[in-house]
Write a structure and sequence with these properties.
Helix content is 34%, strand content 23%. The chain has 504 residues and is α+β, with helices and mostly antiparallel strands. The strands form 7 sheets. The protein has a 7-stranded mixed beta sheet, with helices on both faces.
Length: 504
């Protein structure tokens, strides 16, 4: 009987495929990066065909590295960078434009107009989100407004759209030959088009952005025993494998960390950072600048919800040190370089390259480095970059504690950056609570695998998934309270300097 699970993690900078055994252990992995396209300041794009080809390649690569045959795969799960959106031709599969990435700020004017027209309260009430360039709906509206003839094609259902889960599932299950045009409930909740209470596309929201319903995918559970579809025999797996699990990447990490009970939280350190708190089966509004979002759905019409604090730039700031400034050769160097100094030399780096997300939601904020003197070296800037990741997380934690009314006692962490021991120690020091690193750090792919495996019976229930989770290391806070408070005061002063820079 087939009992292995394949999981694709299609992220902002690359795509990974993991193959897992029934105990949730990784037996093979393959990874490939894709290009980041910056056609104008503030604009960020990806080539969707390049991403599809990279995903096909890592699927083949992971199988080639293992003793697992495609016929041994019980299911395939997908997790993806959220809010990144693509529009393509249903008949040919050709995209009409590059994918517009979640970090892109080109929709700032669209968002400003929506705010000016008084839509903020309605959007917050229905979607749990704020009006921001971050989300998919304004990106779709921009494409419809700027690509000649696209609106008419969309109204006829000839031009279709979706986030990256939709794009990959459509291609995996046949593409122009009848591919499944679906999205899971978590990705749908990030579009600014889903009503959190009806769990369906909302006509008032669609009208607000002038988006035809005919171009949107069907909404399905994150774990779907009815299956989204089967991979094609002539596709990258070379066999018919059920595709039946999908989650946005941050919800996938929540599932991979086994945060199935209300009050359990995790933080993922990737290109951005995202802290999610499971709040149960009732959506909880946030007065503190957090988002209310879907955590996961196991059956049609029902789901668990979460509070989320989204930070736009964390790991991307480290990439900036590497790619734009040439200060480091790779991210792994930051631990030794930052560890060579005792502190950041009095500087703070606020990496608001795409504005500030939670809890500030300032589209006009831009990055700043403050406190510079001639004493400051490369090592201080690298350390300030790591500290910025931790201070931004503290801002979100404080907002989450205020909304939930529960003090954070420990933080589960995951994502590529958690291998950096200094970063994790700084996080514990700046938060003042233990930071827990799990045995399996690829929790995003793990969550997608769990959803797919639940759908086909590889795992029977959530309790079985809880038993798979284990602790690798706990980082205890070491800073005295005075240093923690002083550092945070300086951070908040620096953030004020970053706000509103691009106004007008």
């Amino acid at each position: 009987m087939a009992s292995f699970i394949a999981a694709v993690d299609q992220g902002t900078t690359g795509s990974r495929c993991l193959i897992l055994d029934p105990l949730g252990r990784i037996v093979a992995t393959a990874y490939e990066e894709h290009r980041q396209l910056f056609p104008r300041p503030g604009w960020v794009e990806h080539d969707p065909l390049e991403i599809w080809h990279k995903v096909a390649s890592v699927l083949r690569g992971a199988l080639a590295q293992s003793a697992v045959a495609a016929q041994d795969l019980a299911a395939l799960g997908i997790t993806n960078q959220r809010e990144t959106v693509v529009v393509w031709d249903r008949a040919t599969g050709r995209p009409y434009y590059n994918a517009i990435v979640w970090q892109c700020t080109r929709t700032r004017e669209i968002c400003r107009q929506l705010v000016a027209q008084g839509y903020e309260d309605m959007v917050r009430r229905k979607t749990g989100l704020v009006i921001a360039t971050y989300f998919s709906g304004p990106k779709i509206a921009w494409l419809l407004d700027n690509i000649p003839g696209l609106r008419a094609l969309a109204e006829r259902g000839e031009a279709i759209c979706g986030t990256m889960d939709t794009w990959l599932i459509w291609n995996l299950t046949g593409g122009p030959r009848g591919g499944a045009h679906i999205t899971d409930i978590t990705n749908a909740s990030r579009t600014m088009l889903l009503n959190l209470h009806t769990l369906d596309w909302d006509e008032e929201l669609l009208a607000m952005l002038r988006i035809p319903r005919a171009m949107l995918p069907a909404i399905r559970p994150s774990s779907d025993c009815a299956l989204y579809g089967l991979t094609m025999s002539d596709g990258p797996l070379g066999a018919k494998v059920p595709v039946c699990g999908a989650l946005g990447d941050q919800q996938a990490a929540l599932v991979g960390q086994a945060c199935f009970s209300p009050g359990e939280a995790k933080n993922t350190y990737g290109t951005g950072s995202f802290l999610l708190l499971n709040t149960g089966e009732v959506p909880r509004p946030s007065p503190s600048g957090l988002l209310t979002t879907v955590a996961y759905g196991l059956e049609p019409g029902r789901c668990h919800y979460a509070l989320e604090g989204s930070i736009a730039i964390t790991g991307a700031a480290v990439q900036w040190l590497r790619d734009n400034l040439g200060l480091i050769r790779n991210a792994a160097e930051t631990e030794a370089i930052a560890g060579s100094v005792d502190d950041a030399g009095g500087i703070y780096f606020v990496p608001a390259f795409s504005g500030l997300f939670a809890p500030h939601w300032d589209m006009d904020a831009r990055g700043v480095i403050v406190g510079l003197t001639r004493y400051v070296t490369k090592a201080h800037l690298v350390r300030a970059t790591l500290e910025a990741i931790c201070y931004q997380t503290r801002e979100v934690v404080e907002a989450m504690e205020a909304d939930a009314g529960i003090p954070l006692r420990a933080l589960k962490v995951d994502g590529g950056a958690v291998v950096n021991n200094l970063l994790m120690q700084l996080q514990a020091d700046i938060l003042g609570v233990p930071v827990i690193r799990p045995t399996v750090r690829e929790t995003t792919a793990l969550g997608a695998a769990y959803m797919a495996g639940l759908a086909v019976g590889v795992w029977r229930n959530l309790d079985e998934l809880r038993r798979n989770w284990g602790v690798e290391r706990i980082f205890q806070p070491e800073w005295p309270e005075e240093r923690r408070a002083q550092g945070y005061r300086g951070w908040k002063r620096a953030v004020e300097r970053a706000k509103g820079w691009a106004e007008g």
